[in-house]
Design brief:
Blueprint (H helix, E strand, L loop, with lengths): L4 H4 L3 H22 L1 H9 L21 H6 L13 E6 L9 E5 H17 L7 E4 L7 H13 L2 E3 L6 H11 L3 E4 L1 H13 L11 E4 L6 H11 L2 E8 L4 E6 L8 E3 L4 E6 L13 E7 L10 E7 L1 E2 L11 E2 L4 E2 L4 E3 L2 E3 L1 H9 L4 E12 L2 E10 L1 H4 L3 H19 L4 E5 L14 E3 L4
Parallel strand pairs: 3-4, 3-5, 5-6, 6-7, 18-21, 19-20
Antiparallel strand pairs: 1-2, 7-8, 8-9, 9-14, 10-11, 11-12, 12-15, 13-14, 16-17, 18-19
The structure holds zinc ion (ZN).
Amino acid sequence: MIWNEEFETLPREALEALQFKRLKTTLERVYATVPFYKKKFDEVGFHPDKLKQLSDLKYVPFTTKQDLRDNYPFGLFAVPRDQVVRVHASSGTTGKPTVVGYTRRDITTWAELMARTFTAAGVKKGDILQNAYGYGLFTGGLGAHYGAEMIGATVIPISGGNSKRQVMLMKDFGSNAISCTPSYALSLYEAALEEGINVKELPLRVGIFGAEPWTNEMRREIEEKWGIDAIDIYGLSEVIGPGVSFECIEAKSGLHINEDHFLVEVIDPDTGEPLPYGEKGEIVFTSLTKEALPVIRYRTRDISRIIKEPCICGRTFVRMEKVTGRTDDMLIIRGVNLFPSQIESILIETKGVLPHYQIIVDRVNNLDQLEVLVEVSEEFFSDEIKVLQNLEQTIEKNIKDLIGITCKVRLVEPKTLERSEGKAKRVIDKRKL
Ligand SMILES: [Zn+2]
């Protein structure tokens, strides 16, 4: 199902012409209204008049999260503050949060993008959506909420947390769809088991999961346990929130980028040079229609690649491969690059352990030490010590073989690792503490 046939299946040539027109308008507008952008453009001698084709965007400087912080709270807004009808902000565990704003039209655009997202996941008018993304300053809850309402689904605005209540209402209300982080979907599964609910008997059909990187192995795990389709969605508050890109249920292979609203680039994270589509690098977005907070070449820190090949669903938007790591999530252990998702893939393939894990990095005598805590499933834990030791060694060997890092695996009892109600905390890096 496609929400907006006209735009989502626009022939590439027409789409690129639209992108160029919108890009030019956006650049002209930020140059005229946001002193930060004028200064940045002037510094490199760029003027919006110089944009003759889409690829000329490479002459424009990047924007980073730090730029938003430096202009806290409203310094990057491109409209007078009285036209901003909503603000959201990042959780910002340290220092000031990053603040984003929306005009009335931005809110409508955002709802449209999330309507496309839910429709691509098979959610339709009359479905009951349990929206377990956090409501509040975080963009997840309200972003999903407005999109689902736009298509006419019945929204349960339950927000994150209180898992027992979640599964009770899921059963009583007959939720057909759920939106939350993938790690929270696994926590909810455990809560359902504890409450004696047979999840396969629930009318739940599909989960729309995002806000943290997750692997295809994790997808299979969630799909098998819940007996549902698990769909990946992507977004970040600086760009708009959820709704930047989404998987279609037909292919579940790469996330269609809403290219009529966002221009995507892939760059080498070290040099900043644009890379051709198909190569893996850092994803960079430029907003094409946002009014309150346009972002120009925003560096996401997310690593992915762009798939240009047409999709079986009929959409003409390019797809980005599932994000499985961020440049700032990447750990360098004794000189080897490691993403938590690589460990996750190995664990999910291992019988007897649960996809609940934590990676602890420390430096002892100037040497990086990697320890992986993994929960064992109930049935395995009752086994004798020798079986557990063998399991630890198997995982250690697989990590060594596949990633090239020697580590210590420590199995822990079921339900001892902290459960997340939002984004899971996978890594504790004591080297930085
Ligand atoms: Zn598709």
